[in-house]
């Protein structure tokens, strides 16, 4: 297989009918490392909406148990990518996400914005740092994939195209980005988590590199100081050089899923999708409806 053969395979599919296949090929064969980084950045952006940052801080999941929250989020979302919407595993993952979301007062607008980040930020990342940009074909498939996921999550007024997703994201950020103590607390905790994946002496460098990837509205919302221009140029230039180097590599022969990422630390012996996430206690502010801890048909997943 040559470097662009899989892209030709993608372009031969219908982005309106084969959007899951296209998204899977794009995310797990063409850009697995980049998609992981882009989705991390996508979630990070959501903290800058004060209502989202405040809720995440109040749940304490991102501050007291950041590694577990990171692992569970990545694994639940990726279960749908790997197994498809009609599988028992994906249905269990979606059920788990819905059970958690319904335990809190989350507006439809905030939910829709988070969904928009999953569509738009990976495209922007590939434009800036990928070994090639995502094609219009892939953007359309990505929009269809997340529109379908959004409907499964009960989100109303989901955008119908990539352009609509981007317009919705831009308008929401312009209207709602702002300082929030909770958002800053969760952002700091997330940066600390990412630094913990590397040897201690590298932690300050990693934090600085992460901040160098943030745009000015995001820095302003968290009240982070602007990184020095030379640091921004160095970090962003290094990522662009990586993309050019990856372009010269042979294509990936097997898919790479989130469960295989080294950043997933908490499930070395495997996991059950039905056990991921949190289980609010009825009567203590959580969901009053009892849910089975292991829904029928849920599949145990292998370790990374």
Beta-strand content estimate:
under 5%
Let me know the number of strands: 2
Low-confidence parts, pLDDT < 50 over ≥5 residues? 283-300
Helix content: 55-70%
Number of helices: 14
Rg: 19 Å
Major sheet details: 2 strands, antiparallel
Describe the structure.
The structure is a single chain. The chain is mainly α and 304 residues long. It is 61% helix and 1% strand. The chain has 14 helices and two strands; from the N terminus they run ααααααααααααααββ. It has a two-stranded antiparallel ribbon with strand order 1-2. The protein is globular. The two termini are 26 Å apart. About 6% of the residues have low confidence.
Descriptive tags:
single chain; two-stranded antiparallel sheet; 2 strands; 304 residues; 14 helices; 1% strand; globular; mainly alpha
Summary, kept brief:
This protein is mainly α. It is built from 14 helices and two strands, in the order H-H-H-H-H-H-H-H-H-H-H-H-H-H-E-E.
Secondary structure blueprint with pairings:
Layout: H1 5-11, H2 19-30, H3 32-46, H4 50-59, H5 61-64, H6 66-83, H7 88-101, H8 108-129, H9 136-152, H10 162-176, H11 181-196, H12 203-212, H13 216-222, H14 229-247, E1 271-272, E2 300-301
Antiparallel strand pairs: 1-2
Helix pairs in contact: 2-9, 3-8, 4-11, 6-7, 8-9, 8-10, 11-12, 12-14
